[in-house]
Amino acid sequence: MLFLSPIAKVTTDLGVLAWDVGLTLFNLVIPKRKEGKVTPAGHPGADGKWPEYIAPKEGDSRCSCPALNAMANHGILPRDGKNITFKELNTTIRATYNFAPSFCFFVPNFAANMLKKKYRKDTFDLADLDLHNGIEHDGSLLRRDVHFEPNQAVIHVPYVKELLESATGKDKDGNPLLTIPDLSRISSKRRAEARAENPEFSLDKFHAMFGSSNSSTLLTIFGGRIRDLETILLEERLPDGWESRIREQNGLTMLNFNLTVSKVEKGIDEKKFAPAAALATEPASPDSVAKPAEEA
Ligand code: HEM
Prior knowledge:
Blueprint lengths: L3 H26 L36 H8 L10 E2 H12 L3 H14 L8 E2 L32 H9 L3 E2 L5 E2 L2 H18 L7 H12 L9 H10 L18 H13 L9 H6 L15
Antiparallel strand pairs: 1-2, 3-4
Protoporphyrin IX containing FE binds next to α2, α3, α4 and α7.
InterPro entries: Chloroperoxidase, Chloroperoxidase-like_sf
Family: Belongs to the chloroperoxidase family.
Organism: Lyophyllum shimeji (Hon-shimeji)
């Protein structure tokens, strides 16, 4: 029994990867969803009509993830953010954001394992997801490190504003767009600052990749559009008329998502933002993620 569990886990992960490759290939040959019709009919948000937004009230459970909080704020997940099944998380993130079914199983299943719960029958509250160095980690773009702010549901507005103001791209109508190099640059700054100011700072390679994965949704699912990101990140609300920018029939697969994530992570160079004193005295840390400067 002791040996079965890790074997079952590896088998599940390999199965999900194979499924993901299949979905990626299938996406190449089937037509994309029509613009304006990305959110499936019958699901909240179909035709751009999101259920009423109600800000969380005292006692509601919220977490460090703006996308999940927004779903609770619209009642797509329970409004109190409590007693959510992992299966429900799977189906709702799929319909709301058009991630591929492989991703929508993989991440909630990872979260269930992280919380030592059973994917098929247990429930969780949103705040449970903030287990430090589970998925939540130091040096993020929207929250102060847990050392300074134990409640990771609290939006750190100056960080969000700085992120939004860092956009250098423009769409065809001249509206601001966040780009891959923008995201690498602001992530470098955030990590360097957090490392310098937080006496308990930690960020291993795994969590650095998790960080770039979370933040890469800003470029993929949200298409880097600053106008939408303002609403989503500052109010944790889905704008009227909003739909996922992923139009592939089977959604954003892990394989395709990884193309963006790896470019963002590769472009991160903390040294560019490290305080001079820290650079002079700090030995290379085994869990640091200083990378050679490379533009994505
Ligand atoms: C599948 C279930 C999901 C879980 C369990 C989850 C969990 C988390 C957690 C724990 C964080 C905090 C990470 C940190 O410390 O920076 C986070 C951040 C984030 N998540 Fe999610 N999330 C999920 C789905 C999504 C989806 C579907 C999207 C986008 C549509 C998304 C977008 C983000 C963004 C933009 C951040 C902020 C990244 C940063 O501050 O650097 N998440 N998520």
